[in-house]
Amino acid sequence: MKRIRIIAVLLAGLFGASYANAQEVLTLQEAIKYALQNKAEAKKSALDVENAEYKIDEVRSGALPQVNANGSINYNPLLQKSALPAEIFGGEPGETIMVAFGQKWQTNAAVSVNQQLFNQSLFTGLKAAKTTREFYQINNTLTEENLIEKVANSYYEVFQTQLQLKTLDINLESTRKTRDVIKGLVDAGLGKKIDLDRTTVAVNNLEAQRQQVINALELQENALKFAIGMDITNDIVLPEETFDISVERMYDTADVNSRTEIALLNKQTELLELNRKSIVSTYYPSLSFTGNFGYLGMGNIFPTFGSDGFKWSNFSGLGLNLSIPIFNGGSTRSKIRQADIELRKTEVDIQDAKLGLSLANENAKTQIKNSLLTINTNRSNVALAKEVLDNTNNNYTNGLATLTELLDAENAYADAQNNLNTALLKYKVAEIQLIKSNGQLKTLVNAN
């Protein structure tokens, strides 16, 4: 029996140590870095950037020589005959004879090359491909910023619920102590059973509320782990200093022109301009060089080199191909006007986006100010509620306050704490929006 107990203790210690090691203390910066490396959105955006390089290679290939090799072999069971004057072959004048031309077997093998010398559409396409790469790079930055914002909001929600659970634990512990004191008085015949029942009900309600908060916390933690691309089975712990207040951010200057959203729209405008130039370039003539070299063989036997019954001859050719567009019914002009409309629409989008970003910045500053006022008020309320609770508890112990007053004081203290936590969450959410409106979300990755 003693050996079994020792083994049980060792196993408990082993599993306890494993559980402790499985938990990860996750700061906001670590959560963001993890998301940027593991979340699907970040991975796909990085793949888009990589794919842009291959698109550039694809367009560039059009400016390089195009070399092709081809060959064929034909067997002609029946050779086509042509009518010729018989006198050519020494026959009577006016007579016609049928003569078969060609050989039973015919084959050829050739290599051809084509090189663009001047093609305005191709040159414009090369510029567009490079601009597309820059577009995807900016889009990757925007994707990361959106991911940072989502992770930060989810992170702070988890932290707020953890603070709410901590407040509940404090309130529950206090109520349990009150219940135990009343139970001792009842057992000694000095207290009322109704007071014991009321405190027992209060404890049960707090325990049920605590379990609800634990369940909500588990759901929020799972949502956070999903947001960063972490295995749902991992255990995470958030540090205590997450809800630090930094008033200095209120005075940061916002420049909407430096925002990633505006940079992306500007790059989109460049692409649309290049698209217009590509359409205009169809008015330009194009010039290309062509060349070929090959062998042609014919005979009445299967073609093989060195056979007397099969004859070979080589051939080659060089040339220039010039194409000059003259008239296509106005199709190109219509396409150019459509491209102009798209450019004008993008300019409208840029102006609207700037207005929206300016609005978001002002709203974030206003929310920061309101949250700071609420936080200061709630902190004062927490201190006052704690003082009232201590005085009420002392008065209840001395018989100067009722149980109802004590329970009300405990609830008021818990409410004040929860109100403070909610205000802190609203502040942090507004802070994220302010950082975003200032175009500084990336600073959260390397923040101390």
TrEMBL record:
<feature type="signal peptide">
    <location>
        <begin position="1"/>
        <end position="22"/>
    </location>
</feature>
<dbReference type="Pfam" id="PF02321">
    <property type="entry name" value="OEP"/>
</dbReference>
<keyword id="KW-1134">Transmembrane beta strand</keyword>
<protein>
    <submittedName>
        <fullName>TolC family protein</fullName>
    </submittedName>
</protein>
<keyword id="KW-0175">Coiled coil</keyword>
<keyword id="KW-0472">Membrane</keyword>
<keyword id="KW-0732">Signal</keyword>
<feature type="coiled-coil region">
    <location>
        <begin position="406"/>
        <end position="433"/>
    </location>
</feature>
<keyword id="KW-0998">Cell outer membrane</keyword>
<comment type="similarity">
    <text>Belongs to the outer membrane factor (OMF) (TC 1.B.17) family.</text>
</comment>
<dbReference type="InterPro" id="IPR051906">
    <property type="entry name" value="TolC-like"/>
</dbReference>
<keyword id="KW-0812">Transmembrane</keyword>
<feature type="coiled-coil region">
    <location>
        <begin position="196"/>
        <end position="223"/>
    </location>
</feature>
<dbReference type="InterPro" id="IPR003423">
    <property type="entry name" value="OMP_efflux"/>
</dbReference>
<keyword id="KW-0813">Transport</keyword>
